[in-house]
Design goal:
562 residues; 27% strand; disordered N terminus; 6-stranded mixed β-sheet; elongated
């Protein structure tokens, strides 16, 4: 039998319908190959495999899996043996494409019978992007340790000796222990070990991320299959993110027992006739959507379309598949129970011998977790950016950002010869409020004052809190006299505040200092403006509080006010 010739054509495969197997093997978009288990020779590959690896089929079918898989030769032989004996049928490998690029792949490989020999049937899925997203999520979550308790996966932290020093609620729930009980245990106490699955401390100490599937021991003695992503943190501690893969194992066990090779696919497969009426779905389709084949047979895939799906994309979609080309894209779909899920969909048209479209094959990957991870990263980054700009108590601009804005506005004022005023203010006798009523009341006073200041300003004004009870307002294109009018509104709004305390209602007043930029001085800075404003504020305090004082540089630094 020549390596380039299909070994399935006109042969009887160990499935209920060999013709259906050949139809799916040749035409749908999932990468599939047939492999000789003793030598690793690639006996046959479908169109999706040729497209993915980048080799002509005539070349690909003369190669060995050793030329694609980056594992050492002896390890590849071992994995082929495991797949052939059905010791293991689910693998993660790194495969090298014709252009030299290395992609991470998920492989489901099981033996099938062809005539009087047994060969391996492999379904290969590119999971590079998913793995990159997972890695980015893990890195982001390290920066937000406060989110540890919100994680759905178990997170275990141990010292370099393997003694647990922290665990989240999901980890406790997974194994049935309390947190205090786990902190008295070692990795060896909770992990089923064997010669094939030892604790891999050395790899962790070398800085490697160790991905493994193993079994952990619950408090009641039962075993739970898990997927563990372990790494050494910068401070030397060991972190393991543990995911319960019980359901996934159940699916894999079921797939290994199925006689039809197409039903071993981890992707949802749907076949329609040329009119779009559903003729076939695999078990993964039912798992993903909740619909059985009997429920959807004769209907169109439109029953899965979510209300949020863009209808404008339909013309391009239909034009693509009707022309015989493959369509790929993401879509938000709806399950039978009303829940939505994200799918990465590949739809191919099947062309008959007369050149007409006879069927459509849709292969869907559930990417809901990846989408949620991407949204979570974006949300955390947005929160981090917001924290860098604002004061946490009042939600006003903090000192750092206010100074940046001040530099920009001062440059603009100098360049355009515009006036620029600065208000420096604080709450009168604020220390007495804290000492008398407590810091909680003091914080409430700061928040109410901040709200009153915001309601007094224009959109172009820049309000910030420098610290304590000190607030500052930058007034672009505003003269001192115009700023003085604004302070009257501020005094009224502050005076309208009524703060309820256990000792009774509390009123607030505020002292304000006004400074303006020196237009004739190129060396004038925001820091100088703040110094002049502080001097004016001090004079307002000395003058009896609850008033505004203007710093006038034309009066040899003297200060005057009402």
């Amino acid at each position: 039998m020549s390596p380039g010739k299909s070994v399935v054509k006109n042969k009887t495969v160990n499935t209920q319908d060999g013709q259906t197997f050949r139809f799916i093997f040749e035409h749908h978009a999932a990468v599939m190959m047939l492999i000789e288990p003793e030598t690793g020779a690639i006996l046959d590959a479908n169109h999706a495999a040729v497209s993915f690896y980048g080799y002509p089929k005539s070349t690909l079918c003369t190669m060995s899996i050793n030329e694609i898989n980056t594992l050492p030769q002896d390890q590849i032989v071992l994995e082929l043996h495991r797949a052939m004996t059905e010791e293991r049928n689910y693998f993660h490998f790194s495969h090298r494409l014709a252009n030299g690029e290395v992609r991470l792949v998920e492989v489901h490989s099981s033996p099938i019978a062809v005539q009087d020999r047994r060969i391996l049937f492999s379904i290969i899925h590119d999971i590079t992007e998913r793995k990159r997203t997972e890695a980015a999520l893990r890195e982001s979550e390290e920066q937000y340790r406060a989110l540890m308790e919100q994680a759905s996966d178990g997170i275990f932290i141990a010292n370099q000796e393997g003694q647990y020093i922290n665990v989240n609620s999901a980890g406790c729930k997974l194994l049935g222990y309390t947190r205090e009980e786990i902190l008295n245990l070692h990795m060896r106490d909770l992990t089923k070990l064997s010669e094939d699955a030892p604790l891999r401390f050395q790899e962790l100490r070398e800085g490697k991320i160790v991905l493994s599937e193993r079994e952990m021991i619950r408090k009641d003695g039962t075993l739970v299959p898990v997927e563990i992503s372990a790494k050494q943190l910068p401070d030397g501690r060991l972190q393991g993110i543990v995911r319960d893969i019980t359901k996934r194992r159940e699916v894999e066990d079921q797939l290994r027992q199925l006689s039809q090779a197409v039903e071993q696919s981890p992707l949802a497969i749907l076949i329609t006739d040329k009119d779009g009426k559903i003729e076939y779905t695999n078990p993964r389709f039912t798992t993903l959507t909740g619909y059985t084949l009997d429920e959807v047979r004769g209907q169109t895939p439109h029953l899965l379309v979510s209300d949020q799906t863009e209808s404008a994309a339909y013309p391009v979609f239909f034009q693509t598949i009707l022309s015989g080309r493959e369509w790929r894209g993401e879509s938000l779909n709806r399950k039978k129970n009303g829940e939505t899920y994200w799918g990465y969909v590949s739809i191919s048209s099947i062309i008959g011998s007369n050149g007409d479209v006879t069927h459509f094959v849709a292969v869907t990957e559930d990417i809901t977790a990846r989408k949620e991870a991407e949204e979570k990263i974006q949300r955390l980054n947005a929160e981090l950016e917001q924290l860098a700009l604002t004061d946490h108590l009042t939600n006003l601009y903090n000192r750092r950002y206010f100074m940046q804005r001040g530099i920009e506005e001062l440059k603009s004022a100098k360049r355009n010869k515009w006036p620029l005023a600065l208000l420096v203010m604080d709450i009168d006798e604020f220390k007495k409020i804290n000492d008398t009523f407590g810091h909680e009341t003091g914080d409430k006073a700061l928040q109410l004052a901040a709200n009153a200041l915001k309601s007094s300003l224009r959109e172009t004004d820049v309000l910030g809190r420098l610290g304590g009870d000190e607030f500052v307002i930058l007034l672009p294109q505003t003269s001192v006299q115009e700023a003085l009018l604004l302070t009257e509104r501020i005094h009224r709004n502050i005076a309208a505040i009524r703060l309820e305390t256990p000792q009774g209602r509390l009123s607030l007043t505020m002292s304000i200092g006004i400074a303006e930029s020196n237009q004739g001085t190129d060396s004038d800075t925001v820091e100088n403006l703040l110094v002049r404003g502080d001097r004016a504020l001090y004079a307002a305090k000395q003058g009896g509080r609850n008033r505004t004082v203007i710093y006038d540089p034309a009066q040899q630094g003297k200060i005057y006010g009402p």
